[in-house]
Amino acid sequence: MTEIADYKQAFIRNNWYAAAWRREIDTRPLARTILGERLALFPTKEGGIGALKDQCPHRLAPLSMGECIDGGLRCGYHGLLFNASGACINVPGQDFIPTTAKVKSYPVRERLGLVWVWMGDAEPDESRLPSIPQHGEPGWALLQDGYQHHAANYRIEIENLMDPAHTTYLHKQTIGNPAAKDVPVQVERNERSISAFRWMERTPPSPFDKQSRDFGDGLVDRMVSFSFELPGVSFVEVCSMPTGLDKTEDNKNLGLRTLSYKFLTPEDERHTHFFWLHLRNHRLDDTAYEQQLRAGLEKTYVEDNQVASAIQIEQERCGKRQFTGLKIDHAPTMALRLLDTMIADEQATAVA
Amino acid sequence: MTEIADYKQAFIRNNWYAAAWRREIDTRPLARTILGERLALFPTKEGGIGALKDQCPHRLAPLSMGECIDGGLRCGYHGLLFNASGACINVPGQDFIPTTAKVKSYPVRERLGLVWVWMGDAEPDESRLPSIPQHGEPGWALLQDGYQHHAANYRIEIENLMDPAHTTYLHKQTIGNPAAKDVPVQVERNERSISAFRWMERTPPSPFDKQSRDFGDGLVDRMVSFSFELPGVSFVEVCSMPTGLDKTEDNKNLGLRTLSYKFLTPEDERHTHFFWLHLRNHRLDDTAYEQQLRAGLEKTYVEDNQVASAIQIEQERCGKRQFTGLKIDHAPTMALRLLDTMIADEQATAVA
Amino acid sequence: MTEIADYKQAFIRNNWYAAAWRREIDTRPLARTILGERLALFPTKEGGIGALKDQCPHRLAPLSMGECIDGGLRCGYHGLLFNASGACINVPGQDFIPTTAKVKSYPVRERLGLVWVWMGDAEPDESRLPSIPQHGEPGWALLQDGYQHHAANYRIEIENLMDPAHTTYLHKQTIGNPAAKDVPVQVERNERSISAFRWMERTPPSPFDKQSRDFGDGLVDRMVSFSFELPGVSFVEVCSMPTGLDKTEDNKNLGLRTLSYKFLTPEDERHTHFFWLHLRNHRLDDTAYEQQLRAGLEKTYVEDNQVASAIQIEQERCGKRQFTGLKIDHAPTMALRLLDTMIADEQATAVA
User: Fold this and answer.
1) Per residue in A17-54, pLDDT tens?
2) Which of A236, A205, A197 is nearest to A221 (CA)?
3) Which of B141, B234, B329, C146 is the 20 to 30 Å CA partner of B123?
4) What whole-number distance in Å separates Cα of residue B230 and Cα of residue C59?
5) If you average pLDDT over residues C110-120, what whole number do you get?
6) Does the keyword Metal-binding apply (chains A, B, C) (predicted)?
7) pLDDT confidence tier of residue C187, bands split at 50, 70 and 90
């Protein structure tokens, strides 16, 4: 059906991509490849983060093999010192600094404990930085620092994340549900995102819910929602709340809520950085539960990577993405179509 | 001399290839690549074996990552269920099964403890399944389940197996014989096979023969025969029998006989599945001897793989197969010429 | 700046390349790739070394998988025996030796404990074999058998070896000197070599010098010289001698001298054999010091390989060698230009 060849390398460039957890960058520079470009991340004098092309313009040594000195990055080969804007500010052995002694720098922001890098040539758009109202708020417990390296193009990851139907089979050991009744049915397309959700009213609480709270013999209203802010932010919410209430934020907070975020950053056309964090409004101080929860999520994402990386290999082998379409493809297909539109728009703008 | 480029990928397709030992396929599907095609093998409801292309038509997940359910194969990603003829018989989440929801299936037979797969488009030819009259018969001991993965094109393996002259040098630690007197001299070409043999009459029994039977001070008539049913079945027989008798099957059974079979299945143009079994009519219940025999055969085939895989690399490096021809090339050359003829015939038929 | 594509594979062929330490070749043949050609080295009947193309002309088995027999090399597959001039002198199973049964042989010399191979088609030029007057002389201690496999084109290695400026940064744990005052300033170009040196008169001895000899509170005259005989011999000398003397060999021997040699042999366009030896005229019998010295040199060369192999990858990735030039590039640039001239001369001669 669909060919893979023509968009293998198609990335949206004017976007904030999660590059690292802030705590990954300490006193040593960090090498990370994003959209096929190699970056060196390092701490600046002001306590922020700098992001430079990971290649000294002199002999091409990776700057990430150098040292963080005085808020700059010093090449480990001949000692050229660069500041966070990519200017060379010292060349050992000579006073004159050539105008060619410079490297590309990338705009950097910190948010949600993550370092975000703007990869495009357009002006960085602050409004596009992801925000999570509950992040850091009282009443919410945070699992963070989640990271996996996935061996698949980010489109395969998007299909996976917009597709709850697979949990019954791929994740039957973890979050799978034989009934698969939680599949959202309403799908909405917005300017840069796709969302799908479903409310099941007056339904028995799940065994998992019962484990977290005593609902007695009562029923709950249960919601599952999936959304994807393209090209990289996946958000899944599950909420079980007392029946008969309006579906407001405040009322939802009376129930059990979990907010699961994944931030996808293409490393190159075959690999994806998979950052994740998880918020919940219950069992806040239950450490044993939290360890079990983290292990379960990690296992689930490992299962996703196993199938995604196998699909990556098959797509490259046969040059196709699929040979038959199903009803469950509805949301993933909408997401990829919107992505294609966004990429085409960006490229049209760049040419104009 | 001969170029390698033009037939690197030339396989005979209308043929039964050994795909697996039957006992390799239990409750889990088995992935195996044959002629560059990836197959998933699995047990069917009737106790047989199904062979499907190892790729779900939906998202291309390998079916071998799925489960054997109800005699079918269920994709591990979204649960599509396929039967042994490749038809999709269930799609979770919808009642309608798209006509495109199907995969290629391969004819399968079981024989000699092995699973055989027909890789061509022509009607499977039952008469081409290999048979061994002594297999399973009383008076014969069987070594089976032999398997090695060899890193060479199957043509290099054919040359090796039709060439007893190398045993003196390559296998000097195992079956090598400094005198190399056992080399067959008569070579015959048949429709799909090459055979070569030699009888040495009234010759002293080998030390190995003496170890297996007390010949007194007497002499034996000794035969070595090599044959190759193209493209994949190698058969080597060694027989030491009392002198002066007619060379009938019954009389040969009075002596020491070993029948050594190898079944070659190209995995791709650079790798070959090497299945083997071994029959003998002596020391039937000698377990210690049998262990030693198996270890010796395994070591011999490892030596073959070492040189074959080195040759594979050299052939690819220089684009040639050889620069000088020798007398010992007679049988291997006949075998490869016959193979070329068979491939050309098959391709001419396919076009016609 | 400079493109890498056009000279990636440009080697000087008419040259003696270090192929192995003599003691690497004992009773087994040694496989080594030089300028992309695979050689088998083996001991001859006369106690010398033979060098043949590592490929039997019959089935292409590597001769290095064979055996050293009677001063020749016997193929491990079918037993063809070759002498050191590449002629086949025995074919098992036949009396006639085909004229095509031969392999290319390479001229070989032994010097400085190393085996040298002439890779070109021109007559071997004995005068080009490297010589070291102090090698084997009384009063000098020798560290030899040094070898590392470096994952970079030899040009990157040449730049590294002609560039003392990097020691301050790359080797700050070992031989680095924060002041970098030892950088030579005078650079000379000769017919096939580049040399650079600097005398610092009446300077305090280094801590390292003081460790080796008690200079009291006195001063020394200190010299550092670098030279490179293209394409493969690097020589670095450091000398600290009493002040006020003429700079003759005899007077230099009154001081502390170290002579450091590296012999580069391109394995292929991405890898370099890095042989090294080291001579000193002090602490001749100090075993503990010698062990420490060897370990320090090995670590330094490992650091060189780390940056060189990273640069190799970057050069291939972007197709360039550098984007800005510095003063410290003077000597390396002269060396590579001379190398280009030599390669062009050799190729012009070959065509003519």
Assistant:
1) 999 999 999 889 999 999 999 999 999 988 999 999 99
2) A205
3) B234
4) 21
5) 98
6) yes
7) confident
Q: What is the mean pLDDT of residues B336-352?
A: 89
Q: For each of the domains in chain C, give its residue range(s) and CATH number, in order of start.
A: 5-126 (2.102.10.10), 132-351 (3.90.380.10)
- Please judge whether C327 and A94 are an interchain contact, meaning their C-beta atoms are less than 8 angstroms apart: yes
What residues are paired with B224 via a beta bridge?
Answer: B198, B238
The 10s digit of each residue's pLDDT in B130-170 is 999 999 999 999 999 999 999 999 999 999 999 888 888 88
Q: Is the pLDDT of residue C204 over 90?
A: no
* Six-digit token string for A336: 């990829």
**Chain A nearest C-alpha distance from C163 (Å):** 10
How far does B342 lie from chain A, in Å, by closest CA?
Answer: 28
Which of A14-23, A48-57, B246-255, C46-55 shows the lowest mean pLDDT across its residues?
B246-255
Neighboring chain A residues of B59 at a CB cutoff of 8 Å = 159, 311, 321-322
Q: How far apart are CA C30 and CA B340, in angstroms?
A: 37
Which residues of chain B have a Cβ shorter than 8 Å from any chain A Cβ?
A: 55, 57-62, 65, 74-79, 88, 91-94, 98, 100-102
- Section A243-261 average pLDDT: 92
Alpha carbon of C258: minimum distance to chain B alpha carbons (Å)? 43
Best B77, B89, B104 residue to mutate vs chain A (most A CBs within 10 Å): B77
Q: Is B303 exposed, middle or buried (0-12, 13-18, 19+ CB in 10 A)?
A: buried
Nearest by CB to residue B326, choosing from C65, C91, C102, is C91
Contact partners, residue A105, CB within 8 Å, separation at least 6: A50, A51, A52, A53, A84, A85, A86
CB within 8 Å: C169 and A92: yes
Q: Which chains touch C (3 or more CB pairs under 8 A)?
A: A, B
One-letter amino acid at B114 equals L
Measured CA to CA, the distance from residue B144 to residue B141 in angstroms comes to 10
- Smallest Cβ–Cβ distance between A307 and the set B55, B61, B92 belongs to B61
Chain A: give the shortest CA distance to residue B52, in Å.
15
Query: Which residues of chain A approach chain B closer than 8 Å at the C-beta?
Result: 159, 163, 165-166, 168-170, 180, 183, 306-307, 310-311, 314-315, 318, 320-328
**Contact at CB, A327 and B58, closer than 8 angstroms:** no
Give me the mean pLDDT over the A74-98 stretch.
95
pLDDT single digits (tens) B49-108: 999 999 999 999 999 999 999 889 999 999 999 999 999 999 998 999 999 999 999 999
Q: From CA B161, how far away is CA B264, in angstroms rounded? A: 10
Averaged pLDDT for residues A344-351 = 86
Please judge whether A57 and C159 are an interchain contact, meaning their C-beta atoms are less than 8 angstroms apart: no
- The Cα B256–Cα B209 span in angstroms is 7
Which member of C61, C79, C98 has the closest CB to residue B307? C61
| Of B217, B211, B218, residue with least CA distance to B243 | B218
ipTM rounded to 2 decimals: 0.91
pLDDT at A186 over 90: no
Instruction: Report, as an integer, the average pLDDT of C27-46.
Output: 96
| Paired sense of beta strands A141-150 and A271-280, if any | antiparallel
Percent with pLDDT over 90 in chain A? 75
DSSP assignment string, B127-188: GGS---TTTT-TT-EEEEEEEEEE-S-HHHHHHHHT-GGGHHHHTTTTT--TT-TT---EEE
pLDDT at B211: 77
As given in the structure block, the two tokens for residue A272 are: 């994806």
Chain C CB contacts of A77 below 8 Å? 166, 169-170, 307
Cβ separation of C307 and A94 shorter than 8 Å?
A: no
Say what the pTM is: 0.93
